[in-house]
Amino acid sequence: MKQSIVLSLTLLMFNSFFFMATSQDIALPAPDRTGGKPLMQALSERATTRNFSPADLSLQQLSDLLWAGWGFNRPAEKKRTAPSARNVQEIDVYVSMKSGLYLYDAEANILRQIHGRDIRAVCGTQDFVGTAPVNLIYVADLGKMGKKEGDEITDSDLLYPWTNTGFIAQNVYLYCASANLGCVIRGLVPRERLAVEM
Fold first, then answer.
1. Which residues of the chain have pLDDT under 50?
2. 35: phi > 0 → left, psi -120 to 50 → alpha, else beta; which?
């Protein structure tokens, strides 16, 4: 069984993993920006799975995964590996693992711990979600798009975040194909309950 990652799209969400039993930020190693499978091979092997090993990913795999999805590939310009409409970069990527919930800080290449509770089981409704090593949760910060608390949010307001999350998720899928990891993006997420747990 492959090691795997679960992606969950809850407005903009993904599923995470990991080990580390301390309640601290996690400094990630520099992402390996070379190697991997050729693009056409990764596209050929890109697939969705719902069978996951509970084995932890290494810190290097986690760093490479997050960088591929939403890291800075042009750090001097603060430009990302995935496109962002109008370069607003309103998506935040949270990582849920058994050691807790983290926010990916791409600039510092750190996972900033939000809390030390294992909330993986709340990241989706399917049985495999609670034991998958990593759940990524994509969250749109609409304040970066000029919205204020209490403002009405329309489907038009969500068009860019939905599209940008799709770009990030596709990068994650391609990384997983290149690294022989399993991956699935999910929409069945109890958003209100997850928001409370986050």
1. 1-22
2. left
